[in-house]
Design brief:
The chain has about 110 residues and is mostly helical. Helices cover about 80% and strands about 0% of the residues. Helix 1 runs antiparallel to helix 2, helix 1 packs across helix 4 and helix 2 runs antiparallel to helix 3. The longest helix has 27 residues. About 30% of the residues are buried. The mean pLDDT is about 85.
């Protein structure tokens, strides 16, 4: 079963993958970008698992993990920005494309686990 939050997470993961490719190919940055790739794509994977939960407790646990991954992704994006690997000029990392989408997950994920 798919949901709006799953769809948003999937689109977000696609942007994260494109951002990872950009960082590797253009900036030759492999360590921080790998962390971003792992946490950014894990959000949707955990939401997908939550959609198949066998109990309410299992659902909450998976959505809680997705929430934590979202926080971690924000951390890696901030670190990449503050170390000048990404900036507002890079198309793939524009605030409205990645940052804004990631920030919109937080209230949805909080609501789903309460």
């Amino acid at each position: 079963m798919e949901s709006k939050v799953y769809d948003k997470a999937y689109k977000f993961a696609i942007r994260i993958v494109k951002g990872y490719k950009y960082l590797c190919e253009t900036k030759q940055e492999y360590v921080l970008s790998k962390q971003l790739l792992r946490s950014g794509t894990s959000i949707g994977a955990n939401i997908a698992e939550a959609n198949g939960a066998i109990s309410q407790a299992n659902f909450r646990a998976k959505m809680s993990i997705a929430y934590k991954e979202c926080l971690e992704t924000k951390y890696w994006l901030s670190l990449l920005k503050d170390t000048n690997y990404i900036g507002s000029a890079e198309k793939v990392f524009r605030r409205d494309r990645v940052w804004g989408v990631g920030c919109r997950f937080l209230p949805i994920l909080i609501w789903s686990i309460t």
